[in-house]
Amino acid sequence: MNGSVRLQDIADRAGVSRATVSLALRKQAGIPAVTRDRIQKLADQLGYRPNPLVAALMRHHRSTRALRPTHLTLALVLKFSRQDDWRRYLSPDLIAGAARRAEESGYHLEEFWLGDLGWSGAHLSRVLFHRNVPGLIIAPLPSAVGHLRLEWERFSAVAIGYSLARPQLHRVTTDRYEAMLVAVRELRRRGYRRIGLALDANQDARVHHQWVAAFLWEQRQSRPGERIEPLLAEDRQWTERRFAAWFQKHRPEVVMGYDSRIPAWLKTAAVRLPVETAFVHLWNPAADGEFAGLYHNPPGIGAAAVDYLVGMIQRNERGVPASAHTLQLEASWTEGATVRKVRSPRPPGVAKAWR
Asked: How far lies 334's CA from each of 70, 125, 207, 282, 293, in Å?
């Protein structure tokens, strides 16, 4: 048979009602597992394929039923205290973007700060389940490689970033490898050749070393005299003194990094920005011109996480996936005061003004 197979055709062959077939194919928990498996196998044998337009209409119909207000809350789980330095790992704009998209989708996003609540994973799971919360967004964790124990089978869930190593959920993030390539090529277009990278090592570990991997690849394309060993300092060693020693040794034309204090550190060393040395912010907090660098659109990341989660809820996908997906958004270059503008082409015979 072909795509014209109807739910009623499957019901007739299985000896059950059309409603039972519909629930079984949507993997509803109210249908016994044996029955669900039998109906799914029969549907596959008959060549049944759902009509996407009808499926979308039915999802809308189910979402607007009178009982739906009891399922309007999505949970944003943060393994931080509000008193922590959580802004190093998570942008407030990301939270705001997720909250806006949740409202646009007919939900309310509620924050659960585990560091303040002091709840175990089991307790949080019970609270969320009894409040009929269908979906969770797991914010980046304090640790570069962390885990979180919840009763995952009760919820649809998506993580933001790579820091949640266990369990492996679907995740939404930005492509740092491609972002580094964008930054380096933009700098080369502006005439920079001796490019340095200075990072708290934890920031690189949090993204599976994509920053350094792409940087070292680009360094291999440079002449030997233009290559600069990156500074990767462990958290307690990431200090102005350590940075200054690295900078004095290599004297890069431009420094790329995460820490917004780097321009001030350069000024303390009597380095003029961007005349003598430029600075590129790898996680530019805003495209407002204060820093040149990469803008990762935190509101867009939050909105994408909500979109992915709502789709999972509509498809009744719960628990840890057998094969986790990663949705990568692209960062964009933003102009700023810490990098010189693109120079006009030089007339023939005119020497470089920048060494």
From this structure: 43, 41, 21, 10, 5
Give the other-Cβ count within 10 Å of 143's Cβ: 15
Residues 266, 277: contact at Cβ < 8 Å?
yes
The helices-and-strands tally (H runs, E runs) of the chain is 13, 14
Is the pTM higher than 0.85? no
What is the architecture, at CATH level 2, of domain 68-174+300-329? 3-Layer(aba) Sandwich (3.40)
Alpha-helical (H) ranges within 131-287 are 176-189, 201-205, 210-220, 240-250, 262-268
Q: How far apart are the first and last CA of the chain?
A: 73
Range 176-295 has CATH code 1.10.510.10: no
**Using an 8 Å Cβ cutoff, are 324 and 168 in contact?**
yes
| 263 contacts: CB under 8 Å, gap ≥ 6 | 273, 279, 291, 338
CATH architecture of the domain 7-50 equals Orthogonal Bundle (1.10)
For residue 95 the two structure tokens come to 């939270």
Residue ranges covered by each domain of the chain: 7-50, 68-174+300-329, 176-295
In Å, how far are 92, 269, 296 from 299, measured between CA atoms? Answer: 9, 35, 9
Beta strands 332-334 and 292-295 are antiparallel
Average pLDDT of 79-84?
92
23-81 pLDDT, tens digit per residue, is: 888 777 667 888 888 888 998 888 888 766 555 555 655 555 544 444 589 999 999 99
User: Is-contact 48 8, C-beta < 8 A?
Assistant: no
Closest of 100, 29, 105, 98 to residue 60, by C-alpha = 105
Q: Which residues contact 108 (CB under 8 A, 6 or more apart)?
A: 72, 73, 74, 102
